[in-house]
Automatic annotation (TrEMBL), chain A:
Residues annotated as domain Aminotransferase class I/classII large: 81-466
Transferase recorded as keyword: yes
Pathway(s) the chain acts in: Photosynthesis; C4 acid pathway
Keyword Repeat in annotation: no
Family the entry assigns: Belongs to the class-I pyridoxal-phosphate-dependent aminotransferase family. Alanine aminotransferase subfamily.
Organism, scientific name: Brassica napus (Rape)
Cofactor or coenzyme needed: pyridoxal 5'-phosphate
Protein name per its UniProtKB record: Aminotransferase class I/classII large domain-containing protein
Subunit structure: Homodimer.
Keywords from the UniProt entry: Aminotransferase, Pyridoxal phosphate, Transferase
Pfam families per UniProt: Aminotran_1_2
InterPro entries, sorted: ALAT1/2-like, Aminotransferase_I/II_large, PyrdxlP-dep_Trfase, PyrdxlP-dep_Trfase_major, PyrdxlP-dep_Trfase_small
TrEMBL record, chain B:
Principal EC category: transferase
Gene3D superfamilies linked to this entry: 1.10.287.1970, Aspartate Aminotransferase, domain 1 (3.90.1150.10), Type I PLP-dependent aspartate aminotransferase-like (Major domain) (3.40.640.10)
Protein name per the record: alanine transaminase
Organism: Brassica napus
EC identifiers of the protein: 2.6.1.2
SUPFAM superfamilies (alphabetical): PLP-dependent transferases (SSF53383)
Biased composition (Low complexity): 46-69
Record key words, sorted: Aminotransferase, Pyridoxal phosphate, Transferase
Keyword Transferase annotated: yes
């Protein structure tokens, strides 16, 4: 055999990702046996019945079949603004959806992204050196989903095992997997659950000092805002501290901001790292290197299957940008239909457009329902015995802590399972709810969680939470009684 | 994603289990990635050193940026090392010219830039196959399927096909992440298409759908290459995806030369020689990359030659990486495409005998749907533990884009006789392929008429790769301009005619020979003008530099 497991790239083997994870395997088996499984483990809204927004799908359908635009009956199927927008995007391409674009994405779409960023962040604003505040289309690269962008940037940063990347724990495992594939070192910093998953800069300093004492050069820091799996929104003050920290320690900041549309409270709206950085002024705004990532997979769009995203670089020297461009060019170009989705996302219908009302109704409907679902879920978890859950301020997940009694820990040990896996498996068997154990994201020693999405249909939510509570409370009682653990 | 997350969970759990108890919970910095010695800086033995953009010549000289964490000094050196000439310096110059042309038309002896640098047919006016796009439009906006007006605007079989495809997608959700190998029903269609092509069975579980063929190649390189001690045998001239990917993954490109004199023939003796040579340098050769039909060389391998290659890989224990993205692009009656899998199976070799990866793309063929980023690799002859690793790497990126997946299934299962769209589909397909054949022939003949130029015929693929016998004077002038002689020629050609081609040095070539790659993709009505401009330019170039 030409390729044995033993001779594979060690970094690939090390990459922390097992295809047949125990819970997924079991859930699939149960589904095959005919049991109804509620998949609350994937941030994949359309798979759980969320309908795509109508307007963008109309525009992209027309771009797919541009000959429809010449058909006199096209107006029977498509509104005039969708037709106009399809013509607009086709005019930005050199050969429609079937031609490779510039490797960084269509210049016209990148310009729309830059304009969106300027509108969102309130820049440019009058200022002595305002030019540097412009969002520059040359520094925006479109990608096949945000993950590809993260991989491209980390590939530039990581030279070997001596290079470390600060990653929050709990984290979205894209980061650990990519760092591992690239042969770098993951340097964890812990989010503080008792402070609503707050990010304490003192922890960061400690993490960096400890990594350095082990000979690791910390090169970059990842923040996920709103948090995945933790759902917290970072405050402006916190972002300032983080940016100052990156400035002092000379770290590239990777801002995973893919959930920026998914905000479910009003106290802490989403604020981009770029805006805070620009607000801070010189020297920070000129020297902190920032890459921020966005996607069409999340928000009220949820267009995961399109694989569309972008990243924006700030304070990257032109020659480094050229190198990143070169690497992007080896993959030729991101897929063009997703580029158009991105254009539509940053430039949706405006008041007065024919499709505006429908678009607004659909997008608001999704967001408001998600907001209600976030609350139902948090409240549901908090009503359960030995479960405490921070409110999902943003993103798409709930990450309750499950306080397992000693009896359950003992039982898990006897079953040869990590305690949260043990709990999640029992939950799956009893209720069909398929979750992800907290150990998949990293958590403090001796503390256990699970992650669910808040994506099941709203009308099914009360029943799901009831069934969860029934299981949980029985579970807790069972292990309390058997081992004499008494609740406070 | 759920598979990803849960798998992650399992591994972290395993780690947790293995880790000894730690008394100080609040201070436990866990390095999740294991440490290993820093990667060596040594240049891979056969790392391609192409003419490079000026940016990588003077790393870090930009003093104003030295306080930043990521500069040319501190970027991953593997990134600096890789080159991709198809979109390199000449293309940047062309883009600047194109911009300038808009405002400064009179300054140039031409009125448009003709991009013959890249196999991007629809950017040069090739029309997409109507049926494919009808199906894609219906799948993009499925509400159309409920409208009666749709029947007036779409062919009936495109509507049927869209329904059939939607039925294969869980929840009919074209906006959801799919299985990381691609939607199962679409892989079934692809496997059936491979079976129909080869006459041997194909398993949908062997198919990994990718965003174009390139990510599949990267994935295999990632698996095969641990260090510069791992070598990949690549044809020279080669498509620079291979050299770039090998450089990015820190491996060694082990070259084997195609024989230009025998129509870019692939000699087994050359493979053996280069393999031995690599071994003597301490390189373990892991795989053999074969591009058939050839890029940039356009040859179509004979079945007999392919059998010898299969035997060579089997004997030497090499993975055969078969780049078969041009399988529909064969232009000569005396040659036929045979997949390596078909050849291996017809020799009686099964799963246990040879590890074979076949790459296919929707960017080439008669469809030329580059912007869709669709493709697949068919992976056979690997143990299940290796297969799991491939799946794991695929899953880190969640899945490939769904419309690319749908299109990949369509090109492997196009309309059949009797279908509503069959006649128009065949007419479109044959129109494109026969026009490509005509263009290939016209350009090849024109090139062969030029002084000092010889050009093998394009039996397949989308390119001509003429050899230019450059006069010493031109070589000296190139050296004075600090540029490779073929790049010098190509820049002159661009500035004089607006025609963009890629210098042979971007693909590597026998030292001392000079080539360029020119696609056959400009629309047929433009070919005579291209021939004229090229001929005129070449004459004046030779007049200037003839020894």
């Amino acid at each position: 055999m030409a390729l044995e497991y033993d001779s594979l790239n060690e970094n690939v083997k090390k990459c922390q990702y097992a295809v047949r994870g125990e819970l997924y395997l079991r859930a699939s088996e149960l589904q095959k046996e005919g049991k109804k499984i509620i998949f609350t483990n994937v941030g994949n809204p359309h798979a759980l019945g969320q309908k795509p927004l109508t307007f963008p799908r109309q525009v992209v359908a027309l771009c797919q079949a541009p000959f429809l635009l010449d058909n006199p009956n096209v107006g029977m199927l498509f509104p005039a603004d969708a037709i106009a927008r399809a013509k607009h995007y086709l005019s930005l391409t050199s050969g429609g959806l079937g031609a490779y674009s510039d490797s960084r994405g269509l210049p016209g779409v990148r310009k729309e992204v830059a304009e969106f960023i300027e509108r969102r962040d309130g820049y440019p604003r009058p200022c002595a050196s305002y030019l540097s505040y412009h969002s520059d289309p040359e520094l925006i690269f479109l990608t096949d989903g945000a993950s590809k962008g993260v991989m491209q940037i980390l590939n530039c940063v990581i030279r070997g095992a001596g290079d470390g990347i600060l990653v929050p724990v709990p984290q979205y495992p894209l980061y650990s997997a990519t760092i591992s594939l690239l042969g770098g070192s993951l340097v964890p910093y812990y989010l503080d659950e008792s402070e609503n998953w707050g990010l304490d800069v003192n922890n960061l300093k400690q993490s960096v000092a400890q990594a350095r004492s082990q000979g690791i050069s910390v090169r970059a820091m990842v923040i996920i805002n709103p948090g995945n799996p933790t759902g917290q929104c970072l405050s402006e003050a916190n972002l300032r501290e983080i940016l100052r920290f990156c400035y002092n320690e000379k770290l590239v900041l990777l801002g995973d901001e893919v959930y920026q549309q998914n905000i479910y409270q009003d106290e802490r709206p989403f604020i981009s790292s770029k805006k805070v950085l620009m607000d801070m002024g010189s020297p920070f705004s000129k020297e902190v290197q920032l890459v921020s990532f966005h996607t069409v997979s999340k928000g009220y769009w949820g267009e995961c299957g399109q694989r569309g995203g972008y990243f924006e670089m700030t304070n990257f020297p032109p020659r480094v940008v050229e190198e990143i461009y070169k690497v992007a060019s080896i993959a030729l170009s991101p897929n063009v239909s997703a580029q158009i989705f991105m254009g539509l996302m940053v430039n949706p219908p405006k008041p007065g457009d024919i499709s505006y009302d429908q678009f607004t109704r659909e997008s608001k409907g999704i967001l408001e329902s998600l907001r209600r679902r976030a609350k139902i879920m948090t409240d549901g978890f908090n009503s359960c015995k030995n479960v405490v859950c921070n409110f999902t301020e943003g993103a798409m997940y709930s990450f309750p802590q499950i306080r397992l009694p000693p009896g359950a820990l003992q039982a898990a040990k006897q079953a040869g399972k990590v305690p949260d896996v043990f709990y999640c498996l029992k939950l799956l068997e009893a209720t069909g709810i398929s979750t992800v154990p907290g150990s998949g994201f990293g958590q403090k020693e001796g503390v256990f969680h699970l992650r669910t999405t808040i994506l099941p249909a709203e009308e099914e939510m009360p029943e799901i939470m009831d069934s969860f509570k029934k299981f949980n409370d029985a579970f807790m009682t069972q292990y309390d009684n058997n081992f004499g653990y008494s609740r406070m | 994603m759920r598979r990803f997350v849960i798998g992650q969970a399992k591994n972290l759990i395993d780690q947790t289990r293995r880790r000894p108890p730690q008394p100080h919970h609040h201070n436990n910095l866990r390095l999740l990635s294991l440490l290993r010695p820093p990667a060596s800086d040594t240049t891979p033995v056969s790392s391609p050193r192409l003419f490079s953009s000026s940016s990588s010549d003077m790393p870090g000289s930009d003093s104003s940026t030295s306080s930043l964490p990521v500069t040319l000094d501190s970027i991953n050196p593997k990134v600096l090392k890789c080159e991709y000439a198809v979109r390199g310096e000449i293309v940047s110059i062309a883009q600047r010219l194109q911009d300038d042309l808009k405002t400064n038309k009179d300054a140039y002896p031409f009125d448009e830039i003709i991009y013959c640098n890249i196999g991007n047919p629809q950017s040069l006016g090739q029309q997409p196959i109507t049926f494919f796009r009808e199906v894609l439009a219906l799948c993009s906006h499925t509400a159309l399927l409920d409208e009666s007006a749709t029947h007036g605007l779409f062919s009936s079989d495109s509507i049927d096909r869209a329904w059939k495809i939607l039925d294969q997608i869980p929840g009919k959700a074209t906006g959801a992440y799919s299985h990381s190998q691609g939607i199962k029903g679409l892989r079934d269609a692809i496997a059936a298409g491979i079976e129909a092509r080869d006459g041997f069975p194909a398993d949908p579980n062997d198919i990994f759908m990718t965003d174009g063929a390139s990510p599949g190649v990267h994935m295999m390189m990632q698996l095969l290459i641990s260090s510069e001690k791992d070598g990949i045998l690549c044809p020279i001239p080669q498509y620079p995806l291979y050299s770039a990917s090998i450089a990015l993954h820190g491996g060694s490109l082990v070259p084997y030369y195609l024989d230009e004199a025998s129509g870019w023939g692939l000699e087994i003796s050359e493979l053996k020689k280069q393999l031995e040579d690599a071994k003597s340098k301490g390189i373990t050769v892991r795989a053999l990359a074969v591009i058939n039909p050839g890029n940039p060389t356009g040859q179509v391998l004979s079945e007999e030659n392919q059998r010898d290659i299969v035997d060579f890989c089997k004997k030497e224990g090499l993975v055969l990486l078969a780049d078969e993205v041009y399988q529909e692009n064969v232009y000569v009656p005396d040659k036929k495409f045979h997949s390596f899998k078909k050849v291996a199976r017809s020799m009686g070799y099964g799963e246990k005998d040879i590890s074979l990866v076949s790459f296919q793309s929707i960017s080439k063929g008669y469809y030329g749907e580059c912007g869709k980023r669709g493709g697949y690799m068919e992976v056979t002859g690997f143990t299940s533990d290796v297969r799991e690793q491939i799946y794991k790497v695929a899953s880190v990126n969640l899945c490939s884009n769904i419309s690319g997946q749908i299109l990949a299934s369509l090109v492997m299962s196009p309309p059949k006789p009797g279908d509503d769209s069959y006649d128009s589909y065949i007419a479109e397909k044959e129109g494109i392929l026969s026009s490509l054949a005509t263009r290939a022939k016209t350009l090849e003949e024109a090139l062969n008429k030029l002084e000092g130029v010889t050009c093998n015929r394009a039996e397949g693929a989308m390119y001509l790769f003429p050899c230019i016998n450059l006069p010493q004077k031109a070589i000296a002038a190139a050296e004075a301009a600090k540029t490779a002689p073929d790049a010098f020629y190509c820049k002159r050609l661009l500035n004089a005619t607006g025609i963009v081609v890629v210098p042979g040095s971007g693909f590597r070539q026998v030292p001392g020979t000079w080539h360029f790659r020119c696609t056959i993709l400009p629309q047929e009505d433009k070919i005579p003008a291209i021939v004229n401009r090229l001929t005129e330019f070449h004459k004046s170039f030779m007049n200037e530099f003839r020894d």
